[in-house]
Amino acid sequence: IAPTIADAGLNDTVCLNSAAFNMSGFTPAGGTWTGAGITNAATGTFNPAVSGAGTFTLTYSYGFGSCLTTDTKIVLVNALPVLVAGASNTVCVNNSAFNFTGFSPAGGTWSGTGITNTSSGTFDPSISGPGTFTVTYAFSGTCPTSDTEVITVNANANATINAVSAVCDNATPFNITAAQ
């Protein structure tokens, strides 16, 4: 009797931040899986967080003894791009709109309160108003990922002083007070 031939199925490509998944497309059912990233040999559960980024050869084995057959498949785990949204900022509500700098790689999109141009990362404090806001820089390449930046928009200071009644040239010095 000829042994049943194990077929591991087609190769897979996933991202490092992909959820764990069970192998599919293999025949016949009932074999076991081995290799880096396999967390359940019976179901063929592969976890990219366990394997890390790289190219991994997984083995599917079916049968036993002299009837044992094996086949392999390649799983490519793509690393995530290293995104940097840039340093946090503090600005005043009356500042002019500006583009974020210090982010990488280029080609992502910006979102969040106060963003007026998603491609260039234009932030307008007069649109957001005062407060603390988190803006997101997202990259949708092969392995989508994102990073955030916090921006604090301060209200304009009140530089009004309380009215002072008329005083003489030779009056005793006195303090003026700010309006509240």
Mind explaining what this structure looks like?
- It is a single chain.
- The chain is mostly beta strands and 180 residues long.
- 4% of the residues lie in helices and 37% in strands.
- It is built from two helices and 14 strands.
- A four-stranded mixed beta sheet has the order 1-7-6-3, with no helix packed on it. Strands 8-14-13-10 form a four-stranded mixed beta sheet, with no helix packed on it. A three-stranded antiparallel beta sheet has the order 2-5-4.
- The chain is rod-shaped.
- The mean pLDDT is 90.
Keywords:
180 residues, mainly beta, four-stranded mixed sheet, 4% helix
At a glance:
By secondary structure, the chain is mainly β. It is 4% helix and 37% strand.
pLDDT averaged residue by residue: 90
Give the low-confidence spans. Answer: none
Find the count of extended strands (DSSP E, 2+ residues): 14
Major beta sheet, strand line-up: 1-7-6-3
Quaternary organization: single chain
Percent of residues in helices comes to: under 10%
Strand coverage percent: 35-45%
**Gyration radius, to the nearest Å?**
31 Å
Structural class: mainly beta
Main sheet, how many strands, which sense, barrel? Answer: 4 strands, mixed
SSE series: EEEEEHEEEEEEEHEE
Task: Give the overall shape, derived from the CA principal axes.
Answer: rod-shaped
